[in-house]
C-alpha cells in the first residue's frame, strides 16, 4: 500500500522548470517581466550590465537567458557582446539566448543573432508570448517576432532576390502545405497561421506534421534552415 502511494506521489511531481536569467538595465522592466512569466520558467537570477550579465550567467548556467540588446558596460557591444564573451564556455553549451528589446532595427536584430542568440522578440510581447518563446528556444527552435524575421532572412542569404531553383523536395508538398511551411519557417505561431489562412489550429498542425514527414525534418528550426538554403522565404 505504501509503495503504491509513493509511486502515485512520484507521478504527481511537476516537470522541472526552465531556469532563466533576466538581463536588462531597467529594474522596473525586470520586475514586471518576472511577474508576468508563466510557471514553466524559474527566474534564478538577474543582471543589469554586460559585465554583470557575463558573471551571473557563467555562475548560474541557466537554461535560457532573456537578454536586452542595449546594455551598459563591457566594450559597448550590449547583448551581442554578452553572447560572444560566453560562447567559448563549455559549461554553457546548453544555455540559449532569447533577445528582448524595444528596438526593431535591422542592425540590432542581426547583430545579436549573428552573435549566437536563438531568437528575438520586441518588448511589446506579452508575458505569455515571452514564456512560450523561451520554452521553444529551450527546446531547440529559433523564435522571432514575425515582422522581424525578414531581417534575419535577408542577413543570412534568403533575401538576395534569387529565384528558388526547381526542387524535387518542394514538389512533394501541396500548394497549401507550401503556404503553411513558409509561414512556420518565418516564425509564425500555429494560431497565427490558422488565422491568416482561415484554417483551424488542428488543420495547421496536421499540415506541419505532413511537411516535416515529407521533407524528413524533425522540427521547425530544421524547417527554417531548409527553407533558407533554398531561398524559399
Estimated share of beta-strand residues? 5-15%
For the largest sheet, list the strands in their spatial order: 2-1-3-4-5-6
In DSSP terms (H or I, runs of 4 or more residues), the helix count works out at 12
Q: Which stretches of 5+ consecutive residues score pLDDT under 50?
A: 158-166
Total beta-strand segments? 6
Class by alpha and beta content: alpha/beta
Helical residues, percent: 40-55%
Intertermini distance: 59 Å
Rg over CA atoms, rounded to whole Å, is 20 Å
What is the string of SSEs from the N terminus onward?
HEHEHEHEHEHEHHHHHH
Biggest pleated sheet: 6 strands, parallel
Shape: elongated
Overall mean confidence score, pLDDT = 82
Quaternary structure of the protein: single chain
Description:
With 233 residues, the chain is of the alpha/beta class. It has twelve helices and six strands. Strands 2-1-3-4-5-6 form a six-stranded parallel sheet, sandwiched between helices. Helix 10 (190-197) crosses helix 11 (201-215). The chain is elongated and about 50 Å long. The relative contact order is 0.10.
Write the layout of secondary structure elements.
Elements: H1 2-11, E1 18-23, H2 27-36, E2 41-47, H3 50-60, E3 64-68, H4 78-86, E4 96-101, H5 106-115, E5 119-122, H6 127-138, E6 143-144, H7 149-155, H8 168-171, H9 175-185, H10 190-197, H11 201-215, H12 220-229
Parallel strand pairs: 1-2, 1-3, 3-4, 4-5, 5-6
Amino acid at each position: 500500500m505504501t509503495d503504491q502511494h509513493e509511486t502515485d506521489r512520484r507521478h504527481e511531481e511537476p516537470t522541472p522548470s526552465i531556469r532563466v536569467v533576466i538581463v536588462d538595465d531597467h529594474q522596473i522592466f525586470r520586475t514586471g517581466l518576472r511577474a508576468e512569466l508563466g510557471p514553466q520558467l524559474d527566474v534564478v537570477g538577474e543582471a543589469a550590465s554586460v559585465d554583470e550579465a557575463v558573471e551571473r550567467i557563467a555562475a548560474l548556467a541557466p537554461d535560457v537567458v532573456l537578454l536586452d540588446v542595449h546594455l551598459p558596460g563591457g566594450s559597448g557591444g550590449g547583448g551581442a557582446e554578452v553572447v560572444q564573451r560566453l560562447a567559448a564556455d563549455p559549461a554553457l553549451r546548453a544555455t540559449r539566448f532569447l533577445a528582448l528589446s524595444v528596438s526593431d532595427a535591422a542592425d540590432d536584430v542581426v547583430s545579436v543573432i549573428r552573435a549566437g542568440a536563438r531568437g528575438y522578440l520586441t518588448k511589446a510581447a506579452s508575458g505569455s508570448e515571452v514564456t512560450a518563446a523561451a520554452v521553444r528556444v529551450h527546446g531547440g527552435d529559433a523564435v522571432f517576432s514575425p515582422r522581424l524575421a525578414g531581417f534575419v532572412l535577408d542577413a543570412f542569404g534568403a533575401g538576395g532576390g534569387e529565384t528558388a531553383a526547381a526542387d524535387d523536395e518542394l514538389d512533394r508538398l501541396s500548394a497549401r502545405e507550401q503556404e503553411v511551411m513558409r509561414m512556420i519557417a518565418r516564425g509564425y505561431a500555429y494560431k497565427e497561421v490558422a488565422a491568416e489562412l482561415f484554417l483551424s489550429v488542428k488543420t495547421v498542425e496536421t499540415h506541419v506534421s505532413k511537411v516535416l514527414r515529407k521533407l524528413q525534418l524533425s522540427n521547425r528550426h530544421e524547417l527554417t534552415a531548409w527553407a533558407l538554403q533554398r531561398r524559399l522565404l
